[in-house]
Design a protein that fits this description.
about 65% helix, mainly alpha, about 160 residues, 3 strands, 4 helices, binds fe (ii) ion, Rubrerythrin, domain 2
């Protein structure tokens, strides 16, 4: 693949990924305002844009490899990098007196650390079969049953989605 096309793919991937997240938020807002059909449309576009982002990533050969390589990338590189980024951002927010952002960044760091512990659990018991539930507010992942409240952000059980 030529370098320019590759750059287009990388740039578009980032943009469409951001756009998909925005559409999810627009959908929530429309839902809150009672515009149910508009909310459905935003959610549908979000799913569409996520599919487009996946398709673009697939075109970048080498971005997804075999499971062992993907685990190395995800659990030894990407997640530790995100934890470190969130921790630095939390510190900056704390020093700047930004309480809400300090809390949000700190919670996200905890959420990412949990991902590492979930992977360790899976390594110890590769035959395990359990659903995961994800908090729709902070992203906390809980194995097994849904908690009454999110242990990270206190969101109610209704905010959790089973994966
Ligand atoms: Fe949460």
């Amino acid at each position: 693949m030529d370098a320019k096309t590759r750059q287009h793919i990388e740039d578009t991937f980032l943009e469409v990924s951001r756009a998909a997240t925005r559409k999810k938020l627009y959908g929530l807002r429309a839902e809150q305002d009672g515009e149910t059909q508009l909310a459905r449309l935003f959610r549908a576009i979000a799913v569409s844009e996520e599919a487009q982002a996946c398709r673009l990533l697939l075109q970048l050969r080498g971005q997804t490899g075999k499971n062992a390589q993907n685990c190395q990338t995800a659990f030894a590189e990407e997640i530790p990098d995100l934890i470190s980024r969130y921790e630095q951002a939390a510190e900056t927010a704390k020093n700047g007196g930004e309480k809400a952002m300090h809390s949000a960044f700190s919670q996200s760091a905890k959420v990412q650390r949990k991902h590492l512990s979930l992977k360790k659990k899976l390594e110890k018991n590769s035959a395990m079969e359990t659903p995961y539930h994800v908090c729709g507010f902070c992203g906390f992942v809980m194995e097994g049953n849904t908690p009454d409240n999110c242990p990270i952000c206190s969101a109610p059980a209704s905010r959790f989605k089973e994966v």
